[in-house]
């Protein structure tokens, strides 16, 4: 354009400057800046604001402020660009100083300043600015709501949500997402039901993904199935994000066939789709299907990543394919330039351990370029129990004690191995050692979905309103088991079960 002597105008420069900012081409941006000055467009607020954005995006805030300072005419967009530049580069003090000096503050500028405090995790200042803000719009409420959620203040998120006179899909998603990101999965389901019952707002794909994630964690399969039907009935059948959530939910709830059906019904698949189904199949022992899908994935032109190979190596582990596992492990680096992480090394140790190659597994751990963590040594300890290898088990326990000396579960595992070998003296010594740690084994928590509600309970737990009926049903089941010839095995050391209440 310049070579053909066509004169640029106020619409030309912003597009070119935005491109320079996106590409981090600041040298070219400075050249365009010179042309802006030459053609007399520095007084144009649109061009000036774009120059400020370009310099700010390249961390040249001083240059951005020089542009701002040289502008004779500034409007609210110019002030917003400069304040946003300071916030984006972590200078909240300068941003607030300019904010206080701004002759006009519209809702966008106020929301951006509030967002700046939220990004710095200063919710107190964000709330103060919000409280004095005139003419708050729904976006302002949602901005602060998400701020509480993202900063882990679930109570603050709840309180603000209740204050809101008007709510849209982003309000409900802010609350539901806040619960999900902070591990309050039962609350996710409660809020979702409330949304359906108390509002006219319809869930979108983000809502459904968060709800499916909660169903996955809680094992709420019936609700997950309902969400599946709802999604298909409301236009989300071909939504990749919802489909990926359904695959993950079905796989982790043990209904792998449904997960495969959802995967096969997808028109478009991304890397997450392939990774979720491959890992789901591998974890549930369907290694052959997982490896077949991996081959199909490569043939379709999708490049695997590190998560893909976790599923592939897990599949090999369940099938006892030691040589194939090493071949896949080596192909990570040789074919795809993927640097193995601690999770991949853990899969290889598990592969060798399950196959009974305990000495090779120990040698592999010693030669690893990263230090083995507790997960790897625990996997090896579990393999030692299967193959009754007390010597390697003691080595694994020694490493586990170094990594986590207060965890009594390590002693429990080795005591069970010694118990299987009828080495009762060693069992007694380990029980004393476990007692000397001063810690107790964390009891397992079970979840069960009944009548669309998820109940949790621990060993000897009597909090449930129908605990007498529950234990009565357990006693009946135990009598039926005994009458059919089943004999309980009480050899597990340190293992607790509510079934112990039967007698």
UniProtKB/TrEMBL annotation:
This is Chlororespiratory reduction 4. It holds the Pfam family PPR. InterPro entries: E_motif (IPR046848), PPR_At4g14850-like_plant (IPR046960), PPR_rpt (IPR002885), TPR-like_helical_dom_sf (IPR011990). The keyword Repeat applies. Gene3D superfamilies: Tetratricopeptide repeat domain. PANTHER family: PENTATRICOPEPTIDE REPEAT-CONTAINING PROTEIN (PTHR47926), TETRATRICOPEPTIDE REPEAT-LIKE SUPERFAMILY PROTEIN (PTHR47926:SF371). Keywords: Repeat. Transmembrane segments: none annotated. NCBIfam families: PPR. GO terms for molecular function: RNA binding. PPR repeats lie at residues 75-109, 137-171, 270-304. GO terms for biological process: RNA modification. It comes from the Eukaryota.
């Amino acid at each position: 354009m310049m070579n053909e002597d066509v004169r640029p105008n106020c619409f030309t420069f912003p597009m070119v400057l935005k491109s320079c900012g996106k590409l981090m081409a600041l040298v070219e941006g400075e050249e365009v800046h010179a042309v802006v000055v030459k053609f007399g467009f520095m007084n144009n607020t649109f061009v000036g604001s774009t120059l400020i954005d370009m310099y700010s995006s390249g961390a040249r805030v001083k240059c951005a402020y020089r542009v701002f300072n040289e502008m004779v005419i500034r409007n609210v967009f110019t002030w917003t660009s400069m304040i946003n530049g300071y916030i984006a580069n972590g200078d909240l003090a300068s941003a607030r100083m300019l904010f206080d000096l701004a002759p006009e503050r519209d809702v966008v500028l106020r929301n951006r300043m509030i967002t700046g405090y939220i990004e710095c995790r200063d919710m107190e200042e964000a709330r103060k600015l919000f409280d004095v803000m005139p003419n708050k719009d729904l976006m302002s409420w949602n901005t602060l709501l998400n701020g509480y959620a993202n900063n882990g203040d679930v109570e603050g998120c709840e309180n603000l949500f209740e204050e809101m006179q008007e709510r849209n899909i982003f309000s409900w998603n802010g609350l539901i997402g806040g619960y999900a990101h902070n591990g309050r999965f039962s609350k996710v389901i409660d809020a979702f039901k409330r949304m359906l019952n108390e509002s006219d707002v319809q869930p979108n794909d983000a809502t459904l993904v968060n709800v499916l994630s909660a169903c996955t964690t809680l094992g709420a399969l019936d609700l997950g199935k309902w969400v599946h039907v709802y999604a298909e009935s409301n236009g989300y059948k071909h939504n990749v994000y919802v489909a990926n959530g359904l695959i993950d939910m079905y796989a982790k709830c043990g209904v792998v066939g449904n997960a495969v059906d959802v995967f096969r019904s997808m028109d478009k698949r991304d890397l997450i789709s392939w990774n979720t189904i491959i890992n789901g199949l591998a974890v549930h022992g369907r290694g052959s299907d997982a490896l077949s899908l991996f081959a199909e994935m490569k043939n379709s032109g999708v490049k695997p990543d590190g998560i893909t190979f976790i599923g592939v190596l897990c599949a090999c582990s369940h099938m006892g394919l030691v040589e194939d596992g090493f071949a896949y492990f080596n192909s990570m680096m040789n074919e795809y330039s993927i640097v193995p992480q601690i999770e991949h090394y853990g899969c290889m140790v598990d592969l060798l351990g399950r196959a009974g190659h305990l000495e090779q597994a120990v040698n592999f751990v010693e030669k690893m370029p990263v230090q083995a963590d507790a997960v790897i040594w625990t996997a090896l300890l579990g393999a030692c129990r299967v193959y009754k290898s007390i010597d390697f088990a003691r080595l694994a326990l020694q490493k586990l004690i170094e990594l986590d000396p207060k965890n009594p579960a390590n002693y429990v595992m080795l005591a069970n191995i010694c118990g299987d070998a009828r080495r009762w003296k060693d069992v007694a010594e380990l029980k004393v050692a476990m007692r000397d740690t001063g810690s107790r084994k964390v009891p397992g928590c079970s979840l069960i979905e009944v009548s669309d509600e998820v109940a949790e309970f621990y060993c000897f737990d009597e909090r449930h309103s129908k605990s007498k009926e529950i234990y009565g049903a357990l006693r009946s089941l135990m009598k039926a088991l005994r009458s059919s010839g089943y004999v309980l095995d009480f050899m597990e050391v340190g293992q607790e079960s509510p079934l112990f209440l039967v007698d």
